[in-house]
Amino acid sequence: MGGLPGGLSRPRAFWLVLGRSPRLLFPPWAGPLFRAVEGAIAASAVAAAAAVLWFRSPVTAGELACAALVGSLAGLAFALAHRPPEHLHPLGPEHAELYALVREVAAEVGVRAPRRVLATAEADAKAVRTGPLRGELWIGLPYLTEMSPVELRSMVARELALLRERRSRLADAVYTLWVTHPGPPARASALALALLERADAACARVVGRETAALTLVRAQVLTNTFLWFTDRYGTPAATALDGFPLDLYAGWRWKIRNDFLAERGWLRMRARIAADQVGAARLRALGLDLSALPGPPAPGERGLPGLRDGLPGSVEARFARHHLRWWLSAGRDLANAGSLRGVPERVWDAHLDGRLGEVRTLLGMPGDAPPRRVAETVAAGWAAGQAPCEYQCPHAAPAVCALVPAIHRILRDAGYAYEDPLRQRVLVGWDGARADVVFVAEAIARGEPVAALLPVEAGRPDVS
Ligand SMILES: [Zn+2]
To answer: How far apart are CA 165 and CA 176, in angstroms?
Structure first.
């Protein structure tokens, strides 16, 4: 009996999974089978009750009404429990180009093409097994709209190859454990890395090593910027609207296409990718020297026809709601909808002022310390570690994170206005002067004087 990839023996793998998540020992497609059995049991119970009533004549009208009510409620409960997940959208025959691409890549990898391709709300992609011989491909909407056809080929090749590598039930179970359970043992990580590297190698045979590696980097860039955008814009908007912004995906697309989101945050992102042991090892195995990449991989041509501008509004709205509920761990329904551009400015101000308060606390300053003093203190040296900021923020250094809310408040007090609700780092003064808050913060963090960069004083518009 041979061991599994990564040096894990089968008995050890079995006990590892049994001790942590025994459900994983069943194939994923067993879930629907279990549900079918549940359904059959429920249907048999209803049929038995009807038969008892039928033979025990005469049946009163009240008994019949009760039976009908119970049957309807049971049907409703079953339908609600098994309704299609809101984070998935099956892509139909109108996406023939994508299906052709997937079939072609599957043939080159040497696997059966998945029967269906579905868009998902997450910035992720995976091939899933839906039956002993059947598979599906789930591709995140952010990847579908932003990846070039070449990158899509690379991603599809890797996911299909990875599904093939996971054909052993035990290997698949340990891999899933590694993905879903925090703090997995080292042997699970070794197995996951071995499976991923085999999939990467198969992908490289289809698209070449360089494309395989650069697509991995770009997927990371897309995922990180999408999660940053969710935190920076989606979270305050959801709180203000007590709902969800319908245009979350469209807003992020605008930002990444027109506001250089990936490029601006590259240095910080490159450091984060390099710090991820598994990710960095995969890139090394593909021969990519991450430190030699001066900027994020160029996107080239975006998406396929019919996908690059996103999915129908109703689907994107459903995805946005699902994604924000997951992100906020919301017990809240987020039932009301709205637009990012319809969020009042005081909400955006409050978001950054909250961070300014956290910076003051970290510096041991009183809650009403003037923002200019906060900026000067940070400029004199920031040693408080990671400053409060958004998840996966694009800022070059923690001092920049700490300076941004202080500079924002100084400029807002001086009458500066938002130039665009989706480009909040740019503020416009009463005399038309534009200030890029992040640019100013970077200059101050590099040692340039606060007074030279921020000559404005609070209340200036009132003295004009
Ligand atoms: Zn930051």
So the answer is: 13
41 Cα: distance to centroid of ligand 1 (angstroms): 54
Same domain? 50 vs 108? no
Q: Long-range contacts: 190-193, Cβ < 8 Å, 24+?
A: 190/6, 190/7, 190/8, 191/4, 191/5, 191/6, 191/7, 191/8, 191/13, 192/6, 192/278, 193/6, 193/278, 193/281, 193/282
262 vs 248: CA distance, rounded Å = 17
In the reported structure, the alpha carbon of residue 392 is separated from the centroid of ligand 1 by a whole-number distance in angstroms of: 8
- Domain of 336, in residue numbers: 88-340
Per DSSP, the three-state class of 323 is helix
63 plus 109 within the same structural domain: no
Residues 268-296, mean pLDDT to the nearest whole number: 92
- Residue 59: which region, alpha, beta or left (left: phi > 0; alpha: psi -120 to 50)? beta
pLDDT at 459: 46
Q: Ligand 1 centre from 430 Cα, in Å?
A: 27
Last residue of a domain, one of 42, 63, 81: 81
What's the whole-number mean pLDDT along residues 216-236?
Answer: 95
List the end-to-end C-alpha distance of the chain, in Å, as a whole number.
84
Same domain as 250, residue 175 = yes
Q: Looking at the structure, do residues 177 and 241 belong to the same domain, yes or no?
A: yes
Using the 3D structure, point to which of 81, 103, 123 is the last residue of a domain. 81
- Report the separation in Å between the CA atom of 262 and the middle of ligand 1, taken as the mean of its atom positions: 14
Across the chain, mean pLDDT equals 87
| Average pLDDT estimate for 255-283 | 91
61-91 confidence digits (pLDDT tens): 777 777 777 777 776 666 556 556 888 999 9
pLDDT at 416 over 60: yes
Sheet holding 134-140, edge to edge: 88-90, 116-120, 134-140, 125-131
What pLDDT is stored for residue 13 in this prediction? 81
Kindly tell me if the per-residue pLDDT of 103 is higher than 60: yes
- Distance (angstroms) between ligand 1 centre and the Cα of 434 equals 21
This prediction has a pTM of: 0.86
Statement to judge: residues 334 and 387 lie in one domain = no
